Amino acid sequence: MTGAVRGAAPRLVVLRALGLGDLLTAVPALRGLRRAFPGHRLVLAAPAWLAEAAAATGAVDRLVPATAPGRAVPGHIPWAGPRPEHAVDLHGNGPESLRALRALRPGRLYGYALPRGPAWRAGEHERDRWCRLLTWHGVPADPADLRLPAPDQPSPAPGAVVLHPGADAAARRWPAERFAALGRALRADGHRVVVTAGPGEGALAREVAEPGGLERAEGLPFSRLAALVAGARAVVVGDTGLAHLATALGTPSVVLFGPVSPQLWGPPRSPRHRVLWHPDDPRDQRPGDPHGPVTDPRLLRIGVAEVRAALDSLPTPTPPTLAPAPGPAPPRT
C-alpha cells in the first residue's frame, strides 16, 4: 500500500503524519472524503508503519511515507505523477502543514489555517474537529462513523483482559506497579490477562507481567493486534492509540486520563467504555502536559480498586461485526 503515486485516476491527498490514535480519530473524516470523491485515489501522507491500519479503514487507497520528530510537520511529502486535485490538512492548524501540501500544487486546499475557513476550537473533540472542517467545505462527515471492520483472523488470546501500560510520553502512563497489581488480581479471579507492548516498550511489559506470571504480546503487527483487541473481554489502557483501537472495534474498555480531558480524546459515551479522570477543575481540559517526562498527578489519583470496579461494570462483549461500508469503491488504476 505504500509507494509512489501513479496512474490515471485523480488524486486526493490527506496529511495526517501522526500516530495510531490520531489516524483512528480521523477515520470519520477520511470516510467522508471517500464518499464525496469515489472516483479519486485517496492518498494518506503518514508514517509508513501505519500502512496496514490505514488500509483497514476502508477509505485509504495508498500511503506515502511522511514523518517528522514528535508531532512536528513533515517538511516534505514524497509525490510522483500528476498533482492532486484536492489536498486536505488533517494534521494541524498552522501554516507549516499547509505549506507541505501547497508544495504539491493541489487544485483545491482544505484546512483551518486558510484565509477563508472555519475557526479552530481548542476545546473540541478530535473526531468532531476534522468532520466540522470538511462539512464547512461542503464534504459531509459523521463523527460517529468510526468503527473498523472485524479482523479476518482469530484472536491469539480470546476472552483475555488486555492491559496496555505504554504511551508515547510518561505523563500518560499509569504506574507499572499498579498495572501489575491489577493483573495479579484479575488472574487470581480466573481471568486470562495479556500485557501488550509497542516498539521500545518490552521492558515496561515485563515489569508489569513478570510479577504475576502474565502473558505478554510485544510488537504485534497491526492485523494481529487488532485481532487480539477485537476478541478481548476488555482493555485497560491510558490515553494512547490502543484506546482508540478498542473504540474502533467496539471492545469494552477502561481508559485512564491524566493531563488531558477525555472530552478531547476519549471514547464516545457508551456503556462499553468507562473513562477515569480526576482533575482539580473539570472545566480545564488541558490541566497537564501530555508529553511530559513524569506521570501526571491526575493519573496518580486513579487507584487499582477503582479500575477493577470500572472493569466489573463493563458489559460482556459481543462478537465483532463488520463496519458499515464507507461508500462506493474507487476505481483501481
Plain-language structure description:
- The chain has 333 residues and is α/β, with parallel strands linked by helices.
- The protein folds into two domains: 11-136, Rossmann fold (3-Layer(aba) Sandwich), CATH 3.40.50; 161-312, Glycogen Phosphorylase B (Rossmann fold).
- The chain is 29% helix and 14% strand.
- It is built from twelve helices and eleven strands.
- A six-stranded parallel sheet has the order 8-7-6-9-10-11, sandwiched between helices.
- Helix 6 (176-188) links the parallel strand 6 and strand 7.
- Helix 2 packs parallel to helix 5 and helix 6 crosses helix 7 (202-209).
- The longest helix has 13 residues, at 176-188.
- The radius of gyration is 20 Å and the shape is globular.
- The two termini are 13 Å apart.
- Mean pLDDT is 93; it is low at 321-333.
